[in-house]
Amino acid sequence: MQCSEALPLMHEYLDGDLGEAESIALKKHLIACPSCSMLFRQIEQTEACVRLLPKTAVPAGLTARIMSQIPQQKKRSGWFNWVKTHPALSVASVFLLVMVSSFLSLWNEDKDLVVKVANLDQVVIQGDTVIVPQGHTVQGDLTVKRGKVQIDGNVQGDITVIDGSYNLASTAYIAGHVTIVDETLEWVWYKMNEFFSWFSK
Can you tell me the distance from the alpha carbon of 186 to that of 43, in angstroms, rounded to the nearest whole number? Predict the structure, then answer.
């Protein structure tokens, strides 16, 4: 018998609920194990002390008085119950709220010109204007944030202008789409699409 098995049997033995075979096995274990034997004596003494305590009658109404002093559980509001029953939607809503608020905070944070293109040698940057010169071809997408775009040549991809403007010459050719993002909500939508397209790659 293991010590972990002996402890619950000690309580049953002292209560008189232990069968004969289990009693014999417990006694053998207590003889062989000094630590369990000492623990058994301590439990036996504790139970003897409890039995010696005077029996006192519980005053009438004591239970009712105790129960009246226990604070009542506050009823939870409807939104808490909805959150509890729809945990996945709740997490998605919080995630979306955090994403939108972070994008909104980034909208006005940076005022610098940002140009994303496969090769910067394909464009000319003059101040806050990004120029695709006549006779030049940009291979891939061109993204310009907080600047002006002047397309005189060719773009073999999409053009995205964020918080800026663009001008196309009659000689310009764009193979993809031109996207203008000039309002906060459009920018948030653009960033969310960019974020999720990154995961789908």
Answer: 73
The answer to pTM > 0.85 is: no
Query: Residue 136: which residues within 8 A CB-CB, separation 6 or more?
Result: 122, 123, 153, 154
Q: For residue 65, what are its two tokens?
A: 């008085």
Q: Are strands 142-145 and 114-117 parallel, antiparallel or unpaired?
A: antiparallel
Q: Is 159 helix (H, G, I), strand (E, B) or coil?
A: strand
- Spatial neighbors of 134 by CB under 8 A, at least 6 apart, are 152, 153, 169, 171
pLDDT for position 190? 66
The DSSP H or E segment spanning 23 is helix 20-32
Half-sphere exposure of 143 (CA within 13 A, CB side): 10
